[in-house]
Design brief:
The complex is a heterodimer of chains A (240) and B (394).
Chain A (H helix, E strand, L loop, with lengths): L14 E14 L2 E14 L3 E5 L6 H8 L7 E6 L2 E2 L5 H11 E4 L11 H10 L5 H14 L15 H13 L5 E5 L7 H18 L2 E6 L2 H4 L4 E6 L2 E7 L1
Parallel strand pairs in A: 3-8, 3-9, 6-7, 7-8
Antiparallel strand pairs in A: 1-2, 1-4, 4-5, 9-10
Chain B lengths: L1 H15 L1 H38 L4 E6 L15 H11 L5 E13 L2 E10 L3 H4 L4 E4 L4 H5 L4 E4 L1 H8 L8 E4 L2 E9 L4 E2 L2 E2 L3 E5 H8 L6 E5 L6 H15 L5 E5 H44 L1 H9 L4 H37 L8 H28 L2 H6 L2
Parallel strand pairs in B: 3-10, 5-7
Antiparallel strand pairs in B: 1-11, 1-12, 2-3, 2-6, 2-11, 4-7, 5-10, 6-7, 8-9
Helix pairs in contact in B: 1-11, 2-9, 2-11, 2-12, 3-8, 9-11, 9-12, 11-12
The chains are: A alpha/beta (240), B alpha+beta (394).
Chain lengths: 240, 394
């Protein structure tokens, strides 16, 4: 089995995402291109994992798998205790909604939509009413320090504010795991640092497991576990 | 709740691309408007024709040589007044039998002249058909018996020859022969494309001399009631057949004429609607096209929605609603435009237009269906997008 949290063995309930020898091969015009060549990784409750590696090392592919956006070509992947190979696309969507929160480099906020409604979006697919959505979204925006920006649209917010909205959106469903793909890639150093501090704080105080994908070693240093990838394989794991 | 979101998003997307949505809608608007207008015109014309055929009089039986079929050439008549007598014996009441022999002739009064239909008839005509004389009197039986040169003018002929003057008692010439005007018909208007005010009635006996013939073109009989009309027609045809073994005769009722005309006009209306439907189809293709563009444009949004938990169905529904909204809105606008155009045509031209509830319902239903049919493929495509690929799109 793959790399484990150093120290005491984990109970099944503590394992949020478990990749066992996963492979992912892309078919590019008849040529099979391996992106992951047998990667095992367990993300437990409260983990803070930094995935580092050069571009093309497979870290983004791994993150997509861990988040249930993609399925492995080989090996086994469990999210929230469920083997994703048995799930339909609709069930995968539900699993993402309940278990995972995503933060992307490009923020991926809906234009022409207020911060409040952007944050409330995942709750739409949970079937929550408009009022309940807005209450939860407002509370979450308060937690990321944007309580005064509820009705601003993305183009009225700074980059750092937009990423905070995206983090609030990722957290509004109380996910077990927050997956952040280069969350500071589009931000200047100071703004990036404040976003990362927010992630640290959420991990430390809210108990959300964070998986941070980055090619920046300074950013990666914030993770308690640092996993280096190269050519579709994990080459090194270090605990801070 | 998910439906409400899909609705909200669809509306927002249409609003965000007003010009594009409007242009796309235009195809549906034109298609639906065309369907509504053409069906309204077809229906209006059919109703008018039906009213006119019914307006000829009730329980009418028209006996003509040959077969009353669309497409068959009119047969040369061999009927004479002797045949009319035979038919009258079958009917019993001479007052219920009318005849006609028609010829196009030039009618003059002073310096004015007009080429019109001159009908040789019996004095029974106003009783068999519904014809009202507004001035003077109609032909009498003695006019017919003694071949008097007297004429009853249609309202149009009277106006053409005498303007506002009273023609009764005035002299006219028909084909150079002098006649005295004894009456003028009340105006009737158009019937089956014929101006019924553009005719002159003279006694059939006078007409035979004038036209140099002893034939008559057809016999019309007013049956005592609706139930016996078929049997009466059969008996009349049989009598005529016995007298002219080498000629075929037919007796047709208004219902049969209505049936034939109604069929023709229904087919015509259906053809017009189908042609209009093609433009609706083209509009639908436009909707499909623009929906594919919309899906492509919002690929990244689709990826994000999927990442936060939208199922393929949620995404598909969102785009399907957008397409249906687009076409339904276009349908409503097209309907309004079609109704307005139909009313305008009705008001400004002699062609009547009848906007029927069913044509509106069908037009609206079809436009919504076009949205579903042409929205399904783009919606499915959106729903099936791979979230990873979709997120990468910008």
């Amino acid at each position: 089995m793959g790399a484990r949290w150093p120290g005491s063995p984990l109970s099944v309930d503590d394992i949020m995402v478990d990749a066992v020898g996963v492979e992912r091969t892309y078919d590019l015009g008849g040529v099979s291109v391996p992106a992951l060549r047998g990667v095992s990784l367990t993300v437990a409750a409260g983990d803070y994992v930094a995935l580092v590696g050069p571009s093309g090392s497979g870290k983004s592919t791994l993150m997509h798998l861990l988040g249930g956006l993609d399925r492995p070509s080989g090996g086994q992947l469990f999210i929230g205790g469920r083997d994703v190979s048995t799930l339909s696309p609709a069930e995968m969507a539900e699993l993402r909604n309940r278990t995972i929160g995503f933060v992307f480099q490009a923020f991926h906020l809906l234009a022409r939509t207020s911060a409040l409604d952007n944050v409330g979006l995942p709750l739409v697919y949970r079937g929550l009413g408009a009022r309940a959505r807005r209450e939860k979204a407002a509370a979450m925006l308060g937690r990321v320090g944007l309580g005064h920006r509820l009705n601003h649209r993305p183009n009225q917010l700074s980059g750092g504010e937009q990423q905070r909205v995206a983090i609030a959106r990722a957290l509004v469903t109380d996910p077990a795991v927050l997956l952040a793909d280069e969350p500071t890639g589009n931000l200047d150093t100071a703004t990036g640092a404040s976003v990362l501090t927010l992630l640290d704080d959420l991990n430390a105080n809210a108990g959300v497991a964070v998986v941070l994908v980055t090619h920046d070693r300074d950013v990666a240093a914030r993770g308690r576990r640092q996993i280096r990838m190269r050519d579709g394989l994990i080459v090194e794991e270090a605990a801070a | 709740m998910r439906l409400a979101e899909a609705w909200r998003v669809a509306l927002g997307a249409l609003r965000a691309n007003r010009l594009r949505s409007g242009l796309t809608m235009l195809g549906v608007v034109i298609g639906v408007a065309a369907v509504v207008v053409l069906v309204a015109l077809g229906t209006g014309v059919r109703r008018q024709v039906e009213a006119q055929v019914e307006g000829l009089g009730s329980n009418l039986l028209i006996v003509v040589p040959g077969r009353l079929d669309i497409g068959s050439a009119p047969a040369l008549s061999r009927l004479t007044l002797d045949d009319v007598e035979a038919v009258t014996r079958v009917v019993g009441d001479p007052g219920q039998v009318a005849v006609t022999v028609t010829s196009g002739e030039t009618v003059r009064a002073g310096t004015r002249s007009r080429f019109t239909s001159v009908l040789g008839v019996l004095e029974t005509t106003p009783r068999v058909f519904i014809r009202r004389v507004s001035r003077g009197a109609y032909l009498s039986s003695s006019d017919v018996d003694t071949s008097r040169r007297v004429a009853v003018l249609g309202a149009g002929v009277a106006r053409a020859l005498f303007g506002e003057r009273d023609p009764v008692g005035q002299q006219i010439t028909i084909a150079g022969v002098r006649f005295r005007v004894i009456g003028v018909f009340a105006p009737l208007g158009q019937s089956l494309g014929v101006d019924r005010d553009d005719e002159v009635h003279i006694p059939v006996t006078t007409a035979h001399r004038l036209f140099g013939t002893n034939r008559i073109d057809g016999i019309a009989v007013k049956a005592p009631d609706r139930e016996t009309i078929g049997a009466l027609g059969d008996r009349i045809v049989k009598v005529l057949q016995d007298r002219h073994p080498d000629t075929e005769f037919s007796a047709v009722t208004q219902e049969q004429i209505l049936g034939v005309l109604g069929d023709i006009l229904s087919v015509l209306t259906a053809v017009l609607a189908a042609i209009a439907g093609i433009s609706l189809l083209v509009g639908g293709v436009g909707v499909s096209n623009i929906m594919l563009v919309s899906v492509r444009e919002r690929t990244s949004e689709i990826g994000l929605r999927k990442a936060v938990g939208a199922r393929p169905r949620d995404i598909g529904l969102q785009f399907l609603l957008e397409a249906v909204l687009l076409t339904s809105l276009g349908g409503v606008v097209g309907m309004a435009l079609g109704i307005a155009a139909a009313l305008l045509v009705s008001a400004l031209s002699p062609v009547p237009a009848a906007v029927t509830g069913w044509s509106i319902a069908v037009a609206f239903g079809v436009s919504a269906a076009v949205g579903i049919i042409f929205g399904v493929v783009p919606a499915q495509r959106a729903g099936r997008l791979d979230p990873v690929v979709a997120l990468r799109a910008e």
